[in-house]
Design a protein that fits this description.
Blueprint (H helix, E strand, L loop, with lengths): L2 E6 L3 H16 L3 E2 L8 E6 L4 H19 L5 E6 H6 L3 H4 L5 E3 L7 H5 L9 E2 L21 E5 L1 E2 L10 H5 L3 E2 L2 H13 L4 E5 L16 H9 L6 E4 L9 H9 L3 E6 L7 H6 L6 H14 L4 E8 L6 H14 L3 E6 L17 H24 L5 E9 L7 E4 L11 E3 L11 E9 L4 E5 L9
Parallel strand pairs: 1-2, 1-3, 3-4, 4-5, 5-6, 7-10, 10-11, 11-12, 12-13, 13-14, 17-19
Antiparallel strand pairs: 8-9, 15-16, 15-18, 16-17, 18-19
Helix pairs in contact: 7-8, 8-9, 12-13
Length: 451
């Protein structure tokens, strides 16, 4: 029995791939260990979305390479986006690595590690075509009560700054029955919350050409016993289907939450980014969302410092945030990624200007967030209990329907009576707020319960 330690870097989509690899290894008789020092094999599932992520991936691999040189580690396997991006060239750059698997080859993990006659191919990198189905073994690693559900893979857009289509391939959607089957299995394991992820969730089902769409999927998932909250991430702003908006307005289990990355608001920047939409177009999309689902929670992401971005462009973005008042915002500084059209554009913005604009935009959003959260003081909200706060085992933490895992704020529960368990959805009165978090006490505590 080989002992395997797996490290997953990057996004939630990568995490799901890692969970499938772990499930595959366990079902094939491998043992999973937490300590790399006790492992026979280390697997590093890499990220290469932007240069800092690539550098982190390389540093991680080199660190385990040193462990291998000391003789305690027998094999080192590297998978994921960095392998897909650089292919067989990594064989000479990283001689300490035994096998490389691209983003469409992670199902081969047990195959390359099993003893065999002859020499196993060192690299498996091809055009990504694979996406796992309901029959793939998967070990959820995120939370005892929350899980990611990957609904599709790949992206057909050609945004100037993004290398994802090269790393993940074209859109390929899973069928509704496949996703329902996996979700039912997760519900049987105690999962209460599903976070639907992909590279482009809005486009879900288009490639199947059989009428499958996001609205139909959401309604099917909402019928699963045990699943209480369903949240959508990464909705590209083009072609949001009416069926999805209607489902979100009508199905109680669907969180009134949409993660819709817009990237900018200046017309010049949106054109240069190849987003295929204007500021006015984005405003119409947001108005449509809010008309179907009043009080919908909106998360978006933006890029500052894209080539050619002027102070006027940036101020237009600030004005857009002040006008739209998003609930949650992520702000990234632009990186000139090799292999993307934007990397060769003139008028690259100095790093210090990018950093300064990121700080200004986040300061603006922090004030918007504070104002919006203060409106919750004195109200009652449902909270999914997730465990103890890192700061103290006397304080529980959780999230509301309006807070996605890992990227949004949290709720801190000051009273922790007996009987409160991870995975419960409890009623809480909000007493305090911070920039991104809520603080309060449970109000659905039975009489006589003690802390």
């Amino acid at each position: 029995m080989q002992r395997v330690h797996l490290v997953s870097l990057g996004c939630s989509k990568n995490r799901v791939d890692s969970e499938v690899m772990v499930g595959t290894l366990l079902s094939d008789g491998f043992e999973l260990v937490d300590d790399p020092e006790s492992a026979d094999v280390v697997v590093v599932n890499t990220c290469s979305f932007i240069q800092p992520a690539t550098e982190e991936s390389i540093d991680t691999v080199l660190g385990f390479g040193e462990l291998k040189e000391r003789g305690t580690l027998k094999k080192l396997v590297v998978t994921g986006c960095m392998v897909q991006r650089y292919g067989a060239a990594l064989e000479s750059e990283l001689p300490e690595v035994d096998h490389f698997l691209g983003t469409g080859e992670y199902h081969r993990i047990a195959q390359v590690l099993k003893p065999r006659e002859g020499q196993a191919p060192r690299s498996h990198v091809d055009v990504p075509m694979y996406i796992h189905d309901e029959f793939a073994p998967r070990l959820n690693s995120w939370s005892a009560c929350s899980a990611y559900l990957k609904i599709s893979e790949g992206c057909d857009h050609t945004c100037a700054f993004c290398i994802i289509p090269q790393l993940r391939g074209k859109l390929r959607s899973r069928t509704i029955p496949s996703l329902v089957s996996e979700a039912e299995r997760l519900a049987g394991e105690g999962i209460k919350e599903l976070n639907l992820i992909s590279q482009d969730s809005t486009a879900y089902g288009r490639d199947l050409r059989d009428g499958t769409d996001l609205g139909g999927l959401m309604r099917a998932l909402a019928r699963i016993d045990g699943i209480e909250w369903i949240r959508l991430h990464y909705a590209y702003p083009h072609g949001v289907p009416k069926s999805f908006l209607e489902a979100m307005a009508e199905e109680p289990k669907l969180c009134r939450y949409v993660d819709i990355p817009l990237q900018h608001a200046s017309g010049a920047m949106l054109k240069a980014m190849r987003r295929g939409v204007t500021r006015a177009g984005q405003e119409r999309i947001l108005e449509r969302l809010r008309s179907y689902v009043p009080n919908v929670t909106l998360r978006s992401t933006f890029i500052v410092g894209f080539p050619g971005e002027t102070e006027r462009d940036f101020l237009e973005l600030c004005d857009f945030l002040e006008q739209q008042r998003f609930d949650h915002v992520g702000v990234f500084t632009y990186f000139a990624e090799e292999g993307t059209p934007a990397a060769t554009l003139p008028d690259q913005v100095p790093d210090e200007v990018k950093q300064e604009r990121q700080e200004r935009l986040m300061t603006l959003q922090a004030q918007i967030s504070r104002d919006k959260l203060r409106a919750h003081v004195g109200t009652e909200v449902d909270v999914l209990v997730e465990g103890f706060a890192e700061e103290s085992e006397l304080i529980l933490r959780g999230r509301t329907r309006d807070q996605a895992p890992d990227v949004d704020g949290q709720v801190y529960i000051l009273n922790a009576p007996l009987g409160v368990r991870v995975g419960q959805i409890r009623r809480l009165r909000v007493d305090q707020t911070a920039d991104y978090d809520l603080v309060g006490e449970l109000v659905d505590v039975p009489a006589g319960a003690s802390a």
